[in-house]
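Researcher: I've got a protein sequence and the SMILES for NAP. Could you write out the 3D structure of the bound complex as structure tokens? I'd like something to compare against our soaking experiments later this week.
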Amino acid sequence: MNAPIRWGLLSTARINRRLIPAIRSSRRSRLAAVASRSKDSADAYAKEWGIPLAFGSYEEMLSSDAIDAVYISLPNHLHAEWSIRALQAGKHVLCEKPFALNTQEVDRMLQAGLASGCVLMEAFMYRCHPQTRTVLQWVGSGRLGEVRDVFGVFTFKQSGGEDYRLNPAQGGGSLWDVGVYPISFAQAVYGSAPKKVFGKADLSPSGVDLTFRGLMEYPGGRTAQFLASFALPFHTRMSLFGTQGQIEIERPFIGMENTGYFSFTNAAGETQKVSYPQKELYLCEVEEMESAILEGKPTEVTLPQTRDHIRTVEALLASARAGQPVELA
Ligand SMILES: NC(=O)c1ccc[n+]([C@@H]2O[C@H](COP(=O)([O-])OP(=O)(O)OC[C@H]3O[C@@H](n4cnc5c(N)ncnc54)[C@H](OP(=O)(O)O)[C@@H]3O)[C@@H](O)[C@H]2O)c1
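Model: Sure. Here is the predicted complex with NAP in place.
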């Protein structure tokens, strides 16, 4: 396939606002279309954002020859269905996190991806950013010694109202929404899913977790802990504790374009700021898709990693329900 990749937005979600300028800023991509559940909404959105084509249903956009790749920004419970339909229509798929709501859905998505030969990636944009790549290089180089403990936080005050985040049937809850960030970061560091997890949730009246704490044990007795919440002021952090040093990341998931560094403290207690190339966050995942589609390169977020994210969350939810640790199969 030749550049530019013709992108279609599958929904008029709020998060599209970050992808639209990213797609437009790359010479290897072009924003070609938007699809919405109603034609009026698609037309209004296309007009507002200057998008050439507007489709009044998702199916219509998927059957169009004017689209090569889709960005799936639907509520969580619809990710699997529409990723599969897009792949079956021969479209490359960048699917928002969380990729799906259980391992069976993930497996169906992976099968559809294999059968189509198209690129499929979970949209963990932060994984494609130079800050995360640099942190993982530092871990891999052994500068921290052996990393044995990881702590992560992603909290914000969810404003209430009509939001799928508060609906259990739509994959709501802080764990699916923001807990997946520290989990995926820890697993990029450790290179595997945990063996055992313990989760503790505070539930809303509707039954979604407003706050979720997780403790995860990885092979070799290494651990990760995280806090995810809709009920606490905005805060993000990742801390990696190694036998020879420690890394602190203030903006591990969003906003790292503004900080421009993470901190490394060596075994002597000396702290240095480590900078990395500045890059717009969402452009990083667009470029990752471009390299995969146009050059056949592997994606930074791999499908086995994605499958591990989802089975870890499933186990954490099961643990929170049971009030006991759960071993992963
Ligand atoms: N990577 C990131 O930085 C980031 C940030 C925020 C959110 N996200 C992810 O992006 C996805 C969308 O989040 P968002 O907050 O942007 O969503 P949102 O604003 O609530 O929009 C979701 C869109 O899905 C469509 N939709 C289809 N069926 C729906 C239904 N039954 N109920 C509600 N909407 C339905 C609607 O578009 P139409 O009416 O046009 O069909 C709606 O605009 C989520 O998976 C979330 O986890 C990622």
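Model: The radius of gyration is 20 Å. The first strand starts at residue 5 and ends at 10.
Researcher: Great, I'll pass this along to the crystallography team.
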